[in-house]
Amino acid sequence: MTVVAARSIPLEILALPAQRYGCHGCGDCCRDFTVQLREADLAKLRAQRWEERLGVPVTTEFRGRRFLAQRVDGACVFLGEGGRCRIHAEFGLEEKPLACQMFPFVLAPDARRARAGVSFACASVLANKGPALASHAADVRRMAAMVDELAPARTMLDDATEASSEEPDLVAEALDRWLRDASRPLAERLDGLAWLAQQLSGARFAKVRGPRLRELMDTLVDALPDELPLHPIEPASRAQRATLRQAAFFRLEDPKIGDLRRQGRVRAVLGQYLRSRRFSRGRGAVPAMGAGWGGAVAFAAVDAVGPVDGSPDAAAIDELLTRWLRATVLGGRAWGSGFYGWSVTAGLQALALNAACVRWLARLHAAGAGRRAPSIDDVRAALSRVDRASGRAPWIGSRAERMRLSYLRIDDGLRCILRA
């Protein structure tokens, strides 16, 4: 564990030796993200006199907020040759907007500290390239000191019970013990994750606090190998599959400011509604959702792709998804401030749903490439989209998403869609 101070709250870098990171200049984040700017960012851009030098606006306003301008293809206006940022190349890392400097690190404060986890939307994080995360401590500390709103945040165990400062860690430690157990197949560990998420949704946390919560989590995790076979599940129902496809759609959906302006609000909302309905129905062609996602593939072709567990790259996929799940739980991105302020129980259900979406989207990506089984590249593409949206897309933290999870708690729905 690496702990440094960020203003008045300690900062903890994700303690996961299996995860590494170093920027390799692929430029994917500059092509994919819409960057919101702070006042300090705007002041830096004015001082650098980009608009005078380039003769075009470098920022844009949308719904009362300022963002970095994007080209027609969605790439940042500052993306240069070879994936290099022009601001970085000319003025250095510290003169870039704070969001650009921070990526792929994600800050998630709780009652005791701010955790610095990592986003798997970054190709270097996905590929596990670079030095140990602790080597970035000085940079993360410097950037965290510029986040004015960084302050202790409460975490709920469920919607009615506020956690003590230690209790979320008790849940995370027990869950991580299950997730990292390489002696068990990934499919079994995912099934256990879904089973735990559903069991904890019915727990009465007001009567299970502190040491008793640790005992409960240890008991549940220790019982998983014997308990899961006693609760076999039926194949996912038609409605459960439709719910999974709809959840996957909202993790692919990524409206760009330029597109929204060209379409207008009414057309944009109507288009989203129609695409969402087509995903729910699962018939005909998959709506085009950006490069590599739908548009030239039928839902039937996705169903014909073999399961992720049967991939020739199964060992590499196991390592990647295990690393992602552990980084999400230990990096503070599964619940609380790292995930829309949701409770521990709701966050665990969302994590199980995210895992199911990764598996389905990997099959979609494989179908688009004409493959009969998902490859590691298909899973990387799917995981990048899912983790990119997680905690960032407001519609995933919405009441509609909570309703999807509420439905999937019925009849072992989370377990069913993970097996689907």
Major sheet description:
4 strands, mixed
Task: Return the structural class.
Answer: alpha+beta
User: How many alpha or pi helices?
Assistant: 19
- Shape summary: globular
Number of separate structural domains: 3
Distance between the termini: 37 Å
Q: Residue-averaged pLDDT, rounded?
A: 93
Main sheet: strand order: 1-2-6-5
Helical content, roughly?
40-55%
Percent strand equals 5-15%
Q: Which stretches of 5+ consecutive residues score pLDDT under 50?
A: none
Order of helices and strands: EEHHHEEHHEEHHEEHHHHHHHHHHHH
Number of strands: 8
Measured on Cα atoms, how large is the radius of gyration?
21 Å
Structure description:
- The chain has 19 helices and eight strands.
- The chain is α+β, with helices and mostly antiparallel strands and 420 residues long.
- It folds into three domains: 68 residues, no CATH class; 81 residues, no CATH class; 266 residues, no CATH class.
- The two termini are 37 Å apart.
- The model has no long low-confidence stretch (mean pLDDT 93).
